Amino acid sequence: MKSDLPNLYPLAPAALHILMALAAEELHGYGIMQVVARESENRYRMGPGTLYDNLQRLMQQGLVEEAGHGRGEHSRRIYYRLTASGRRVFSTEIARLETMVRNARAYLNAPRPRRT
């Protein structure tokens, strides 16, 4: 993995969705696209170009790795998984987003000063 981890944050939406999809299990490309669509309630749909460009970048950064090929009629499918570094980066990004949401809620709920 690159030594410039701070340059990874904030994660791009596509990268965040891919890491989330791979956090639970090894998946092939189409499986990742299905999980992303399902978990975002179809608000975020990722095409093959976006998926594979991001997978390539995440692999170069050492966050994702190939886990092997499928079997039988699916032997051409390549499965991917998070690396230990990928899991740490994903956890750090979740914590960053939780802080951001907590702070945003505090701003929304803060009393507004009256103009006179």
Spell out the key features of this protein:
116 residues; mainly alpha; Arc Repressor Mutant, subunit A; three-stranded antiparallel sheet; 3 strands
Kindly describe this structure.
The chain is mainly alpha-helical. The protein has a single domain, classed as Arc Repressor Mutant, subunit A, CATH 1.10.10. It has helices at 13-24, 29-39, 48-60, 84-109, and strands spanning 27-28, 64-69, 78-82. A three-stranded antiparallel beta sheet has the order 1-3-2.
| Percent of residues in helices | 40-55%
Sketch the major β-sheet.
Answer: 3 strands, antiparallel
* Overall number of domains: 1
- Under CATH, the homologous superfamily reads Winged helix-like DNA-binding domain superfamily/Winged helix DNA-binding domain
Overall, the morphology is elongated
**CATH architecture assignment:** Orthogonal Bundle
What layout of secondary structure does this protein have?
Blueprint: H1 13-24, E1 27-28, H2 29-39, H3 48-60, E2 64-69, E3 78-82, H4 84-109
Antiparallel strand pairs: 1-3, 2-3
Give the structure's gist in a few sentences.
By secondary structure, the chain is mainly alpha-helical. It has helices spanning 13-24, 29-39, 48-60, 84-109, and strands spanning 27-28, 64-69, 78-82. A three-stranded antiparallel beta sheet has the order 1-3-2.
